[in-house]
Every structure is written in C-alpha cells, then in structure tokens.
Predict the structure.
Amino acid sequence: MTNGSPENIAVIERQGAFLDRDAWPAERWCRLETAFELIGTRSALVLLREVFYGSTRFDDLVRRAGLSEAVAAGRLKDLVACGVLSRRPYQEPGARTRFEYVLTDVGAQLFPVVVALMEWGELLRDDHQTGVELVHRDCGAVLHAEVHCAEGHEVALGAAAVRLKKG
Amino acid sequence: MTNGSPENIAVIERQGAFLDRDAWPAERWCRLETAFELIGTRSALVLLREVFYGSTRFDDLVRRAGLSEAVAAGRLKDLVACGVLSRRPYQEPGARTRFEYVLTDVGAQLFPVVVALMEWGELLRDDHQTGVELVHRDCGAVLHAEVHCAEGHEVALGAAAVRLKKG
C-alpha cells in the first residue's frame, strides 16, 4: 500500500521529499503542463497528426486536419514559435514562394506521445475493425508504447516512482 | 523519400489505401481525437497527474491540481463518466460518507501517455535541475517511453508506417 491508495490499484510511488506532496506546488516545474501548453489543443493535435502522416503544405494540412484556414494558420504559427515545427520555403514553377511545415527534432520526439495516445484511444472504441493502425515497416507488427528505464527494464505502473530531482 | 517530405525528416509512412490520405476523413475513426476528447484539457491532465501520484480525495486533488472546486468537481465527474476514474465511498469516524477517486484499468493504461508527455516536456525546459523525475523503483533509473512493435522490435519514427485496418 502506497500513498493511501487501495492495494489493488497501482499508482506511482512518491519518494523522498516528494512524499510530502503538499510541500511542492506543481506550478513552474510540472513538465506535463509544459507539454500541454504547447500541444494540448485539438487543433494542434490534429495538425501534428497530419504532419506525422507526411503532409507539409498548408492546403493539405487544413483539409486533412478538418480545420478552418484561420485556426490552422494561427496554430501552425504557434507550433513554429515553440519549436515543434519549422517553416521552409518552396516554390513551384510560375508560382510565388510559399512555405511548408516540417517536424523539428523536438517535434519528432513527440512520436512516443502520438503512439501512446493512439493506443489508449483504441481502448475506448467500440469498433476495432475500422480506422488506421500504426505498424513497424519492417515486420508489419502493430506498434505500442512501453515504459522502460535507462537500465533497459520494462516498467509497469506499479514499479514506477516519482521523486524530486537532486537540485 | 516518403509522402513528399524532405529526406532528412522522418515521418510515418502511409501504406496501402491510406496512401491516398484525402480519401479518408479523420472524423469518426481517429483514435487520437477519441483520446483527446477525454483527457485533452488542462484540468483533466493535472487531476490525472495527482491521481497517478496517489491522491484519491477531493480536497487533496483540488489543492494539488491547483484548480477551483467547481472546475475539479466537473472534470472528475467527466472522468468517471468516461471510465477513466471510478468513485468509491469511504467514511471516516463521525463523518458522513464521502467519495474518493481511483484509476480504473482503462485509466491506469494512460501510464505510457503520462511518461511520454513528461519526457517530452522535459525537452522544452531551460532548467533541468528542478522538478520531479519518474524512476524505476527497483533500480532508480529514469523512465522513458519507447515505441515497440508486437514482435518486440524497438521502432523509431522512420521505421513506422500507418495503414487502414483490414475491416
């Protein structure tokens, strides 16, 4: 039993100074909130989905994300400003220079987030026969997100702990 | 080169019928959106964070999530209604019956999402000396989210593909 939660439901064990949860307000240091501020809107998420699926051009992104041009333009600007996407000029013959949107290195590191969210969303569906699935190109097996530690162990929720960093 | 994206930026390769992205509107079958509808608000995310850190009682959740009672109450109701949390009665001596909130099995399966988001949020910070870190209880090594396929291979973004399910 940890943290007063029931024995049959695992939680992340609080350790050290973080045992006293109330001594540590989440403001300023919560990385979940930092992440959420950047990508925690439906419009950001559906645009990122299309970028991950290989769309780069504004017209494609707008149509495939199902957003209005105004909303998409504003959100793409935000995603560029925060370093998730970069904007790159291109020019087709006889046309003016336009811009396309590509993942930065930081943006590409959202890949496990995308996989984990899609995997979890699948749990919530009644119909598992339709929709898309992410697979490994080489072997065709379905992808899923796993938690590992830096020592290489696979870690279940019940084997996880949270502690304050040694500052 | 895949999907018209630049050679140096990996994306998820579209395969089969999904190569024609425009033939498949995302409405109805996008699992990312399904997930986002349930947990894609700041209030849901900070409440889930505290539940994952072992808080169960309304007063603790409100204070630690930094929300107003009204917002927290509404969001907890939503999270119970969609099956992420369950509500369980408890009673302290001399007090009326109250309810605490615990993860359901579906809620507990958000663990890789939480780890992946925290890991990504860490990338965005200037100050890596403060805040909390998730670690493996057994060996103390830091946690991270990895993408694997059902055959056990670790899969990088450049080795991932997306296809329509065979309905």
In short: The first strand of chain A starts at residue 13 and ends at 14.
